[in-house]
Fold this protein.
Amino acid sequence: MRNRQIDIIFTALFAILILGLFYIQIIRGDYFYSLSRKNVIRVVSLEAARGRILDRNAVALADTIPSFDISVIPQEIKSDTSIFDKVSQLLNIPVGELKRNYKKNYINAFTPVKIYEKLDKDRIIALEENKFQLEAVVIDAQPQRFYPFGKMASHALGYLSQIDFYRITRLKPYGYESSDLVGYGGLEERYDLVLRGERGGEQIEVDNRGQRVRTVGYKPSRAGKDIQITIDTRAQKIIDSFMQDRKGAVIIMDPYNGEIIAMASYPAYDPNDFVKGRNKAVERLLKDDDSPLFNRAIAGQFPPGSVFKIVTATAALEYKPSYINKTFVCNGYLQIGNRYYDCNSVHGQESFMDAIIHSCNVYFYNLGMRIGPEAINKYAYILGLGRKTGIDLNYEAKGFIPSPNWKKIRWLQNWHKGDTANMSIGQGEVLATPLQLVKMVSFLINGGEVIYPHLIKKIGDKQVNIVRNKTIKLKEETVNNINNALYNVVDNPSGTAYNAKTKSLKIYGKTGTAQVVGKSPHGWFVGYAGKERPKYAFCVFLENCGSSHIAAEVARDILRKMLQEGLFDA
Amino acid sequence: MHKIDRIVLFITVIILLFSLATLYSSCHVKGEFLRSDIFFRQVIWILAGLFIMWVFSNIDYHKLWDFAWPLYALALFVLFFVLIFGRSILGAQRWLELGGFNFQPSEFGKLVLIIVLSRYFSKKSFDELAVVKKQSSALKGFVIPLIITGGLTILVLAQPDLGTAIIYLLIFLIMVFFIGVRFRYILISISLFLLLSPFIWMSLRDYQKDRLLVFLNPNRDPLGAGYTIIQSKIAVGSGRLVGKGWFSGTQNQLNFLPERHTDFIYSTIGEEWGFLGSIILIILFYILIKRILRLAGLVHDPFAKNLCLCIASLIFIQFFINIAMTAGFMPVVGLPLPFISYGGSSLVSLFLLIGIVLNISKRY
């Protein structure tokens, strides 16, 4: 009989059992405990609804609508893949894509795996109706950005996309995460912190099927603030309709307070394309040679051409009011040194006024050389060229105004008279953005008050007040003379923009045809208009359109349409 | 005549209370008493078991000696019968329906095997046993009892019920070891088993192969065969020292464990009562088994001695294997935790065995 041995063996085995349990419950207990917590606790992030962007009449330009994500719970489907076929049929999405997403996003057996994102309400209904057959499918609603007007004002609005490396390093301290959507370009980027709101979270306890049993912790998401901007959708629609197949930019601004009424840059993009993540439409936009993502209105730097004559003329009159009586003879060209500088026509004897009305180059070559490049440079800066206007959009360009010193330093070359001649008519190195030119002409009507072009009107419920504390001092005489000339550019049958003349609308403006090496010239028409008193400053810029004539025509069509729609009524 | 062994009785009752407390908790789903049917059925089984225990503690165990061989024949017949007419649950034909109750003949087989082996090794006089011990006859001391055990084992294996078959073989091994068969035979039989193991492997059903492979690497199939192992190990481990508390085991209450009131009931104990609860459970069983072994040492009748030893071994083997598999130390073989798992057949046969032990304690 082996009583004792049996006893010892059993006792030893009991001891082993205790040791084993000691190992997994005490030594590795915390590890298993954390695994058991992981089994049951899920953190569900609650996306914050992004604030809307409203126009000045509270029309939503960027809205937030619900969109739906579809997930499946791996544990529920096990190896039954027919669920993918069903979902694919109902939603009309290729099965391969669903399976690929499933593989890509799989975390563990209990966590729902996202198989398709961002479906709209109409498509989700088909799935919702068949939900009883698809127990493993989970549908979540998420707030999503929606731009009801598509391409319209896309550059002013910007778009939303996944945060990139550059932005995440900069924005991390503000609580941004690497999976966030942030604004790119336009107001979406500039006011991102206001618009984005704060993501909330919910800790829930789930059962083995990943279904909610109870809520453990909850932090509500805080919706972003709406912003109201100065854009008037009516005006914006008009300028967009005339720019559809063109390349260039149009800005309409209130010259008295700097409110941008409309701003368009074409070719444009549809910001809704970016909402769906990287796709073919986005690839196409990024590859397009015409850079549709580029906001020409504020970041495009172009030679202003004859529009710049306003600067030269102002400089001359400010220096010596008697220039108003100065005449030069135009033979169609001017010889400086051994080079010939062209004019657009043979004007003969030209007065100061005529020179602006006819846009005579020869007159301005002469005038420019009389007053010198430093004076032109100085007045260009006074009139706001060569530096940012300070509009509340990122990526604004400064433009450029050359000077003899600059040429010396940059190129180690002397400044020639020819350089002065080129500068006087806005050619050569002179560069300006459409926005700068609108700002420039508004000085002529608001009595020299410095206005800051801006788009913001209200953040949440708070009115945004733009500080205005500066005026530039121009002689009243100067301003009157130039205004008079600009009026005649349109009104006078020999004016370069006579084609823009409109009944019951007083249009002031200056055309510009900017020569571009190797391409057809850009056309400009910059000015202001109103029934009696000027109401809007505008700038029409058409890239490589051939002539300012076309720009004046587009401006006329826009202004007439605005007049028809009553936008010029007080 | 002695008095009944009160300690065995007392410990059994405590284990029963432990069982009911655990089962009551594991019948809750998400805080609701959803599986109350299981709980109350178990209460009925326990009452029936207590009655049977009382009956058998009053029946002279010598009667079992008389019925040993007829019972063996009956067991062979029933096990054969269940293979052909039995109800199959989860792919295994283990159940017979008897007047509305599902009855597991392999449980009956355990009882019969214990009785038959006890009788076989005690029919000789003490002197003759000494002869066996000196191995005058390997045939009588080893081969014949192996054939007796094998008959039942093969029928059970065919169901297929690997767990019970292992128990039969282990009872046999402990019995021959206890009697004093030379180690040589035990070693030979073990090496034979190892030699045959490739063939056994081939004869295993797919799910059994899976279980073995999954034991070696549970992550092989975390949603299928490995799921239970992983989840029950997490449940036991996450109990830590004092457990998560009654009704607070998330693994159990939130349905992460299938079969948690039957074979995996220990996961509930481990999770809700922690290491301390487990120790108490182990100590209770240790006292019970020690007490029965002590009785084996005290009684003079070799049949009673063998019976006590086999009964103690059976309880121990099931207890050990069940805890080890639930905590992930061993491959999963479907065995209930004695007295605690839900299930009538196992419970009733255990009570019956305790009844026999109590009867022996009165008579030595």
Remarks:
- The two ends of chain A are 117 Å apart (CA to CA).
- The first helix of chain A runs from residue 3 to 27.
- The CA atoms of residues 241 and 558 of chain A lie 9 Å apart.
- Chain A has 23 helices and 21 strands.
